[in-house]
Structure formats: C-alpha cells, structure tokens
Amino acid sequence: MLDGRASIEIADLYNIEHPLEPGPGELFRLEWRLRVDGVLGHDDPTVSIGSYGHGVLQLGYSESSIYSWYEGVWVGFTPGVFHDYLLTSADMLSYRLYIDGQLARTGAFVGPWYESAVMWGDGVLGASSLSAWDYARFGVVPEPTAVLLVGCAGLAVIRTISRQRRRPLQ
Amino acid sequence: MTRGRYILSVCSGLLLCGALSAEVVVREYAGYVLGTDYEVTPSSRILILQPSLPGVPYDFDCYDEATGEPAVVRALTATAGIGTVEVTVRPHEGRPYGAGDLGLLQIDQEGVTGRIVELNIGRDLGADGPTRADSAGRLGVGRNVVNPIEIAGDVSGALTVEGSVLAVPGDPVIEVDIGGDVIGPLTIRRTLGGDIRCAALRDVAFIGTLAGSLGTTGDVVDLVAGGISGDLAVGAT
C-alpha cells in the first residue's frame, strides 16, 4: 500500500534507471498490478517510462481513469478493483497499453528524452493518493513472433535430425 | 490564492524511495496553487491543471536550493481541454535565469490555447522535445535550442539564442539555422515581430513578415522571407 494522503507534497516514488531499449526482434514490457483506492487532486499515483533518445510517457491515475501527461489523453478503467496493466513497445517511440488483457490504447512517446528509467508510485506533488500495488516489473523480451519463428526453426531442425537418425543404413 | 512553494527531490540511482539527492525548488510566483492549479513530479515535470487568469501568466522559477543556481525544468505542459494558458519561466530574487534547462515545453494540447509570455533560461531549450505553443512573447535561451520551436501564431518579442539551434529532421514552415554546428527549424506560421540574435545565422525562411530586426555575429548563408520591414544586421558575411 502507498498512502500519501497526509499531504499533497508527499512523493513515494520508485525509480529504476536502466537501459530499456529493445533490439531487433525484442519487445519492452512493463507490467504492473494496481488498485487505486483514493485520489485527492488531478492524478496520482503515476507510472513513467523514459527511454534515452526516444521519448517519455507519463501516466497519472485518477480513481477511474489514466491521464497521459504528454499526449493529453484519458484512458478509463473500472474503479475500485485491481487491474493488470501491460505496456509494450518494440521501438520506444510507440506503445500499446493493455488493461486486463484488453488493448486500451495505442499511443506514442514524446521525445527524445534524457534518460532510460521506469518510475512508479506516489509521484506527484500537488495530489495525494491511496493505492495498492501487487507488483511492477519490466524488461526486454523476445517478441512473440520472434519466439514463434525461433521455435518453428528449432522444431524443423529437430525433425530433420530425427529423420536423418531414423533413415535406414544403405 | 496563496503562493505555492515546495521542495522537490531529484531522484537518482536505483530504487530510490523519496530520497533526496539534490534539492530543486520549483516556485510559482503569480499565486497559483499547487494541487489546484498545477502539479509537479519529483523530477521537475510541471503539469498545469487550470487555465491562467487573464493577464496573470503562470510564473515559474526553478533553482537549486543550496546554490541558488538555475535548475532543470524537465517538462512543462498543460492538461488538455482547459482553455487559455499563459506561462513565464523567469528569474526572481536576483537569480540570473528562470531555469537552467527546459527539456520539454509544450502548451498546445487539444483544447489549450497556450502562450509563452516570457522565457529566460540559462542553458538549453527543448532537449527532450520540440517547444510548442500558439504564440509567444520574449524568448531568451542562454545556450542552444536543441529541438524545433514551433509557434503557431506570432512571436511578439525578441527571440534570443546565444548558442546554436541544432538540426532536427522535419518540414518546418519557417526554418532558422543558427550557429556553426548544425541548423534547426523554427516554425512561426505568421509574423515574427521581434528580434533574432544569435552567434551565426545560416538559413532563415519566413512565411510571414519579419517585422523586427535580425542580427547575427556570423554568417547568413541564405535568407528567404515573405517580407522584412525591420533591420538586418549580419556580423560576418
């Protein structure tokens, strides 16, 4: 639980500076599970993703929607319950945001940006909130299509080897 | 309204939780209220929540509390749909500049009519993205403009860039190339009513009219303008 309701000047923010940029055939993934129990002010808590030289995205929560600071758009969600959020990007220029497995928004980072970092938590001075976080995790993983291709290629190699081994001696 | 004043922490390193590694103060001097009118993140990103009152622009000053030196404003933006927003970033209390760097200044969101009334920063403008507004007054940049300045309407005051405007690909309506290094686009869709001063000027193209003066200490390689009624002073060539 992050409880910053005592003051709008409380910031309880987690910040990890780390290279985020996916290579060819890779995908950046940020997953978090969150329930927003109360917000006093415009938006808080917040999730921010910055990619050096590419762009930044900052998502601020109200009790029933997310505001993307630099895109100027709102994305709604059902209030008062946990949601599973997934943000993916293949190039750190555009992204897809899924809420409970459903695509909620396709958008764009604004940039370039000065650092690669992920931040989450009570990160707005001027608003306060009570929120429950199950987890926040991120990384760069092979794109599903790449995994599929590698898997298919692997199966083909195994099958070929298997056939060669079963071929009777001449 | 009461003055909003608060201390921001600039987080660095791995998994910092509210830790303070440097004390940066973002102060608003026009009387707008933190939380009601605007909000800030610990890394000096400012979001304006409410329209400005007529003739009372938001008046930000960002500095390091320990040294008094101008500090970085990482981003200054406005909430979509709020109407007219006027902002200044300028120094107070004897400080030389209103901020050191201003990474991202965009007040042209949908439903926002944004005006940069005054900008006076000591170092770079736009390192984290293009500077966008509907109109502007006096713009002063102590070092470089790193990304395009895109002003949809008039720039009614002087635009002073002490360093270079660096190149960014694009298709600007108006292009100003300044300095010895690279060229950068400056978009002004109508009239530039003030002055431009810079170290060197390589290429200028105005769709509208240059009503003020254009002064450089270096070369002007190319100049295309709809009309020039002011002075043109070129330092070198």
Question: How would you describe this protein?
Answer:
The complex is a heterodimer of chains A (170) and B (237). Chain A has one helix at 144-166, and strands spanning 2-3, 12-17, 26-40, 46-51, 55-61, 65-68, 73-76, 83-89, 94-99, 102-108, 117-122, 128-142. Chain A has 170 residues and is mainly beta. A six-stranded antiparallel sheet of chain A has the order 1-12-3-8-9-10. In chain A, strands 2-11-4-5-6-7 form a six-stranded antiparallel sheet, with no helix packed on it. Chain A is globular. Residues 1-21, 167-194 and 197-203 of chain B have low confidence and may be disordered. In chain B, a hairpin with a 5-residue loop joins strand 15 and strand 16 (184-188). Chain B has strands spanning 5-9, 16-17, 23-28, 38-40, 45-48, 58-64, 73-78, 83-89, 102-106, 112-121, 131-133, 135-141, 149-151, 159-161, 175-178, 184-188, 196-198, 201-210, 214-216, 220-228, 232-233. In chain B, the strands form three sheets. Chain B has a ten-stranded mixed sheet with strand order 1-3-6-8-10-12-14-17-19-21, with no helix packed on it. Chain B is mainly β. The chains are: A mainly beta (170), B mainly beta (237).
Please tag this protein with its features.
heterodimer; A: 170 residues; mainly beta; six-stranded antiparallel sheet; 12 strands; 14% helix; globular; B: 237 residues; ten-stranded mixed sheet; six-stranded mixed sheet; 0% helix; disordered N terminus
